[in-house]
């Protein structure tokens, strides 16, 4: 497989809940090594689409191919060990220490993660090795999500899925962790799909931005193209808020400088 | 009530039996309820049915539930053979297990339903199989709540296990039932204190385990489990230590005469070198089958009881013919040896206060029928279900204003206080003389005779030593002697005797 081969392919994927189509026929391919942001308003179907990759949600139509194989034909437990998963709820196991949480994926296959490996993973997400023995409820929200990222990376995944990973964090932590994830993505040569409702975050971190609305894929652009006005009304509508904020901040800054 | 402190140390073997029974029932209930809870958490239908059934069981009074297992096991003998025990440990275990299911099941199902869905999604997300999810996430997170359910079940079970006495399983209910019958309140309190103490101890120990699980303190969890296990093993050891040889088991039903006669029989056998064991306070209905199946070796039963309940006869061929028919039937059908009649009758008879009888002009059941519509009749809890009552009612056309049930002991008090105008008394009861009651004549001969008979189970039916030791009792006990002994146990003044002392006095009186 060369660097440009698609690692992940959505082929006319749909997901219906009764009469409601959460995902209404999405087709696209994601190249190995790319960081793709999946953006849209609440209820646009972006999380559902992501969860069909590791079969937490099963498609009602179409197929999801991971490395060329239909994900629904793979044993779910084995599939999910090849796919790191980070989500908004973080979902650290409250009865396990930080080290046990990080080591859980390999433990499921009977592999014991060495202490140095856990320390290295903690270091990767900029946490002290002393954190290893702490319980999740002793950590701050940002620290917890760092542990969540370390856990997702512990099995050496080919693909990293992130479902609103920074949604519950304060802006400073959010920014620091976003930058960290981008850095890890490059350092570890990952393929990453990140769901977010924050267009600014998507533009700053991703190589490519997919925009969803009402279960449909309505835009598929690079951040540069979106900045230049491409992607249609819905994508531009999502982009309008951060753009206006940035303009107002810039105006405020130039005003503040004039009295001198 | 200082006696309590003398009685308590003697309850060791009852305590051990109580612990073993309760622990077995809770253990078995856990084995059933926990897998069922897992299944229920995967299927709302199973959850509804399982919780519904467990709740239904809970609505049955524990005493009835225990008693129901006797006929059930009896009918199962056609499948599992005659070796299936119908009394004692097995039915008690089954009934208490059913009783313990609900709290464990309900807490386990609730705990699973309340698990954080994000944690469960994370378990799937990291690639857990269903089994890994159950053992690594669901079970440890539900454990404190499940433990709370086990705690509730334990307190209930330890309380309900006192009722196992009535189906022949030794427990801390033995002193309670014996004491209630003989109005020995120290004995009742000692039994209650011991079982309440046991329930409190279990509750606290299990609480330590629950907190240990919630705080993830291994020290507390495993420490608590170790102490619980130590207690159960100590009880098992204590129980096993004394029971390496088969003893002769003597039954008594739930009234004083039976306690006294059991002790009289026991003391004679002990003097002859046998080891005996008492099963006190059995329900009247279970004693006959227990002897027939050799779960119990010796009982004292009454001709009228066997005649109507087991031969299903409602005719009255006369006292001698009735006895001989029963003796032959028992030997032929059950292999039970009727060693002989003790010499007195304990028949049902209708009794009234002297002043009340004079006032209404009642001396016989014929007279009673005329005034019955204005009167309240009192009977023991089974009386109004018995064929004797039906026979008398129909023979004389008795229609009372009200039928009330009383425990035998309280029936006489009810008569004194006027809560009942006439009661179904027993002819050997000491209180007939003590309370100067009038026993009404039975001109139609509607009430059958109730000769007390000594019954030997098939296991010891041909044991020459037993027969030799008990033969002197045959024909030796007059109704006056029996009344006096009964009164000695039932009275509430300083002259009150324990059944054992009354038995010794009775033996002396009749020249044994």
Strand content of chain B: 5-15%
Largest sheet of chain B: 5 strands, mixed
The count of DSSP E runs of length 2 or more, i.e. the number of strands of chain A, is 10
How much helical structure, as a percent, in the residues of chain A? 25-40%
Specify the structural class of chain A.
Answer: alpha/beta
Q: Looking across the biggest beta sheet of chain A, what order are the strands in?
A: 6-7-8-3-9-10
Question: Can you list the strand order of the major beta sheet of chain B?
Answer: 7-6-8-5-9
Report the span from N to C terminus of chain A: 60 Å
The level of helicity of chain B is: 55-70%
The rounded Rg of chain A comes to 19 Å
Number of strand segments of chain B: 10
Q: Note poorly predicted spans of chain A.
A: none
Annotate the secondary structure layout:
The complex is a heterodimer of chains A (260) and B (512).
Chain A: E1 6-17, E2 20-31, E3 35-40, H1 46-51, E4 61-66, E5 69-70, H2 76-81, E6 83-87, H3 98-102, H4 104-108, H5 115-124, H6 141-153, E7 159-163, H7 171-187, E8 191-196, H8 199-205, E9 208-213, E10 216-221, H9 223-227, H10 232-257
Parallel strand pairs in A: 3-8, 3-9, 6-7, 7-8
Antiparallel strand pairs in A: 1-2, 1-4, 4-5, 9-10
Chain B: H1 4-7, H2 12-42, H3 44-59, H4 62-80, H5 89-113, H6 117-125, H7 130-160, H8 173-182, H9 185-214, H10 218-242, E1 248-253, H11 256-271, E2 276-282, H12 284-292, E3 298-302, H13 303-309, H14 319-334, E4 337-345, E5 348-353, H15 354-360, H16 365-371, E6 376-379, H17 387-396, E7 402-405, H18 408-417, E8 422-426, H19 430-434, E9 437-439, E10 451-456, H20 464-470, H21 479-490, H22 499-509
Parallel strand pairs in B: 1-2, 6-7, 6-8
Antiparallel strand pairs in B: 3-10, 4-10, 5-8, 5-9
Helix pairs in contact in B: 2-3, 2-5, 2-7, 2-10, 3-5, 4-5, 5-7, 6-7, 7-9, 8-9, 9-10, 11-22, 21-22
């Amino acid at each position: 497989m060369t660097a440009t081969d698609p690692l992940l392919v959505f082929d006319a994927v749909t997901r219906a809940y009764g009469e409601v189509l959460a995902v209404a026929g999405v087709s696209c391919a994601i190249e190995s090594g790319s960081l793709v942001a999946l953006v849209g308003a609440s209820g646009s179907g972006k999380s559902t689409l992501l969860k069909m990759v590791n079969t937490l949600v099963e498609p009602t139509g179409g197929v999801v191919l991971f490395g060329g194989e239909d994900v629904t034909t793979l044993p779910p437990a084995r599939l999910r060990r090849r796919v790191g998963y980070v989500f908004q709820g973080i979902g650290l196991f409250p009865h396990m220490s930080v080290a046990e949480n990080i080591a859980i994926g390999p433990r499921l296959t009977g592999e014991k993660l060495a202490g140095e490996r856990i320390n290295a993973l903690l270091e990767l997400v900029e946490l002290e090795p002393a954190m290893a023995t702490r319980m999740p409820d002793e950590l701050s929200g940002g620290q917890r999500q760092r542990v969540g990222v370390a856990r997702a990376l512990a099995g050496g995944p080919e693909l990293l899925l992130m479902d609103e990973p920074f949604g519950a964090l304060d802006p400073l932590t959010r920014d620091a962790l976003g930058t960290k994830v981008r850095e890890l993505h490059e350092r570890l040569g990952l393929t990453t799909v990140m769901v977010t409702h924050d267009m600014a975050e998507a533009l700053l971190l991703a190589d490519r931005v997919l925009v969803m609305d009402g279960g449909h894929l309505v835009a598929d652009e690079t951040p540069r193209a979106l900045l230049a006005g491409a992607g249609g009304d819905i994508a531009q509508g999502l982009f309008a808020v951060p753009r206006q904020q940035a303009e107002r901040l810039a105006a405020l800054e130039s005003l503040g400088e004039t009295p001198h | 009530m200082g006696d309590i402190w003398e009685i308590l140390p003697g309850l060791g073997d009852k305590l051990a039996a109580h612990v073993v029974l309760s622990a077995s029932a809770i253990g078995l209930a856990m084995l059933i309820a926990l897998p069922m809870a897992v299944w229920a958490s995967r299927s709302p239908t199973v959850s509804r049915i399982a919780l519904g059934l467990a709740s239904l069981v809970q609505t049955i009074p524990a005493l009835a539930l225990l008693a129901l297992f006797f006929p059930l096991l009896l009918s199962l003998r056609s499948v599992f053979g005659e070796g299936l025990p119908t009394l004692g440990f097995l039915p008690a275990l089954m009934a208490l297990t059913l009783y313990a299911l609900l709290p464990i099941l309900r807490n386990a199902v609730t705990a699973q339903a309340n698990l954080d869905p994000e944690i469960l999604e994370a378990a799937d997300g990291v690639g857990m199989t269903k089994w890994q999810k159950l053992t690594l996430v669901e079970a440890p997170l539900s454990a404190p709540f499940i433990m709370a359910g086990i705690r509730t079940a334990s307190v209930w079970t330890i309380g309900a296990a006192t009722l196992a006495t009535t189906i022949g399983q030794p427990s801390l209910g033995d002193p309670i039932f014996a004491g209630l019958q003989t109005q020995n309140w120290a004995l009742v309190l000692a039994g209650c204190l011991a079982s309440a103490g046991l329930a409190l101890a279990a509750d606290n120990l299990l609480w330590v385990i629950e907190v240990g699980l919630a705080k993830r303190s291994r020290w507390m969890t495993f420490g608590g489990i170790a102490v619980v296990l130590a207690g159960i093993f100590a009880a098992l050891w204590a129980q096993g230590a004394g029971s390496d040889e088969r003893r002769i088991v003597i039954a008594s039903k739930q009234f004083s005469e039976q306690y006294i006669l059991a002790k009289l029989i026991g003391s004679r056998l002990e003097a002859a070198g046998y080891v005996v064991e008492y099963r006190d306070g059995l329900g009247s209905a279970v004693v006959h089958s227990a002897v027939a199946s050799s779960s119990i070796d010796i009982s004292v039963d009454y001709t009228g009881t066997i005649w109507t309940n087991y031969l299903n006869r409602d005719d009255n061929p006369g006292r001698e013919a009735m006895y001989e028919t029963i003796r032959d039937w028992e030997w032929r059908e059950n292999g039970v040896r009727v060693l002989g009649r003790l010499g007195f009758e304990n028949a049902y008879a209708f009794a009234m206060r002297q002043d009340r009888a004079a006032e209404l002009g009642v001396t016989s059941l014929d007279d009673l029928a005329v005034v019955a519509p204005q009167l309240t009749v009192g009977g023991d809890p089974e009386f109004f279900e018995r064929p004797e009552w039906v026979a008398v009612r129909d023979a004389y056309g008795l229609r009372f204003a009200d039928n009330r049930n009383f425990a035998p002991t309280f029936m006489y008090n009810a008569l004194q206080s006027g809560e009942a105008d006439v009661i179904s008394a027993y002819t050997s009861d000491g209180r007939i003389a003590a309370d100067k009651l009038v026993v009404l004549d039975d001109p139609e001969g509607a009430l059958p005779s109730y000769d007390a008979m000594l019954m030997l189970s098939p296991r010891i039916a041909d044991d020459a030593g037993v027969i030799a030791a008990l033969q002197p009792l045959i024909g030796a006990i007059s109704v006056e002697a029996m009344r006096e002994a009964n009164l000695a146990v039932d009275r509430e003044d300083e002259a009150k005797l324990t059944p054992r002392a009354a038995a010794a006095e009775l033996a002396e009186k009749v020249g044994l």
